[in-house]
Amino acid sequence: MATNVYRGSDGTLSVAVESTPEGDLAAAVDEKYGLAPIGRVTGVTVRVTSEVKPFHELGQRFATELRPGNINVSGTIERAHVNGALLGLMLGPAAQTRPQGTFASPAFNLSLQLENPALPGNRSTVTVMGVKLDEWAYGIPEDDFVMEKVGFQALWVKVEDATA
Question: What does the alpha-carbon distance between residue 126 and residue 47 come to, in Å, rounded to a whole number?
Fold first, then answer.
């Protein structure tokens, strides 16, 4: 039974790549910047939405059935260290030079692992599979930390809980 509670300070965020052309692009960025773990992350959200559709029978005010529809996975990552890694994960080689014509975008998996240091071996891991970054923003405030923020979409998500 999972009864552990976690704080953001208990977590790590890492990039994992698969052996595909899009994965190879992400692997090049990972190799250049060392994204295991991705450092200086201050906020991560993962959203899973299911398009549930109600069926209403003629003469009935309440739905008589709820049918599951498409499932979408998306989220954001905020980071206080701007070095080009996240922009590279979004654009691949296009983050360094403007390619002619079309080009592939990197794809990777994100692993979010939480482990309470007071209970070693008890951990929760959320792995977001087939991630592609779809938004990048860079903020330079007058009197606060410089931050970058990326948005992503993914193919699917899995959760694994372990107990010692």
Answer: 12
pLDDT in tens, 54-104: 999 999 999 999 999 999 999 999 999 889 999 999 999 899 899 888 989
Q: How far apart are the first and last CA of the chain?
A: 12
Find, among 52, 74, 69, 50, the residue nearest to 129 by Cα.
74
Res 150 pLDDT > 70:
yes
CB neighbours (10 Å) of residue 24? 15
Domains in the chain, CATH or no CATH each:
8-51+68-162 (2.30.110.20)
- Which residues sit opposite 126 in a β-bridge? 112, 159
Q: Which helix (H) or strand (E) holds 85?
A: helix 85-91
pTM: predicted TM-score of the whole model, two decimal places: 0.88
Element (H, E) at 164: none
The C-alpha atoms of residue 95 and residue 85 are separated, in whole angstroms, by 9
β-pairing, 65-67 vs 11-16, is: unpaired
